[in-house]
Amino acid sequence: MKVTVTTRSGRELIKGGLELSDSATVTDLQEAIHKRILMYNGAHFTWTLCATLEVSMDTSKIAIGWIMDMDKRSVHGHHGVLWTLWTLSKKYYPSRQRLILPLPPGSKGRPTVLHYKKSLKEYVDGNKNELTVVFKDLGPQVNYSTLFFFEYLGPLILYPVFYYFPDVYQLFGYKGERVTHPAQSYALYYWSLHYFKRIMETFFVHRFSHATSPLSNVFRNCAYYWTFGAWIAYYVNHPLYTPVSDRQMKVGFAFGLLCQVSNFYCHILLRSLRSSDGGGYQIPYGFLFNIVTCANYTTEIYQWLGFNVATQTIAGCVFMAVAASIMTNWALAKHRRLKKIYLMGKREDQNIRGDG
Ligand SMILES: NC(=O)c1ccc[n+]([C@@H]2O[C@H](COP(=O)([O-])OP(=O)(O)OC[C@H]3O[C@@H](n4cnc5c(N)ncnc54)[C@H](OP(=O)(O)O)[C@@H]3O)[C@@H](O)[C@H]2O)c1
What we know:
alpha+beta; 9 helices; binds NADP nicotinamide-adenine-dinucleotide phosphate; membrane
């Protein structure tokens, strides 16, 4: 199959296109693009290098072969040339590439994004044996599990700092001793359980449809979770903190725990919608999914409600309001996507998740 790869401005990215087997997948195409860009950049770089150092062009061929294999070797050292070649080899690796089908001129619709697990044949018109795709560089990528791990690690570490080291409040001008209330201890256990659960779900429960997310999301999401985590921890563990009544605290934590368990069960149900190597979206069913489309978000919001009933801080309520508005938007988008797929028979392969 002949594949023409263009940039968004319509310029041909790979001169002469690529020839791939009829059974090739989108991942095969991305790897072929990576290889060709690497060869081009590598050749250009080594040509410049050879011209500068006045060494033979054979050196360039050896170097290109070498860098193509570099990941498989254990290379150490900081030789400038090798480092540059290695950097080139990292550029435009498959998960950095977003491939879409070109839109007909004048069309305002959303373009179809090629899914990395699918066969190229699925995107070919009729019996044609050629395909044109538009390439976009998504920038440096990280695995979803890495992104989630780091965003949840912050709250998991920062919160106990305020509980176990009350001296930090001296930095904020509070000199007196702190008396720890039971509500503060339960809040610590509740909070730690929540983020520990999320990390475990990330590694052992979720079946993500996309392997990676832009590196910039790590900084954005960490800023969100780490800042809110520290802010809430600061107020709940404050020496001047006034606990709610014993009854209110117990009702809040009990309700919140019930919602955390329900949230875990919702994630198990979502996992069962996909095989280990599958993507795609199914209509979730069973348990609270029989009532709402995104029962996982509903239970997540309610478990924060339980935490806030039990601890009653402004910081906790602000976090809940922000999280609820984010999840409501995502839930509405996910509901629309399922309606499009199952009621209107249209495919929508765009990622709706906000990467958080
Ligand atoms: N506090 C906050 O601000 C906040 C914000 C958002 C989320 N959260 C929490 O973080 C958890 C994870 O959220 P998330 O948005 O990353 O993931 P999610 O929507 O809860 O989904 C979890 C996993 O199930 C998959 N999935 C979802 N709907 C599916 C469907 N209809 N068919 C097949 N698979 C489906 C997702 O796949 P994909 O990879 O395709 O998405 C993902 O791998 C949430 O449940 C919530 O507890 C908190």
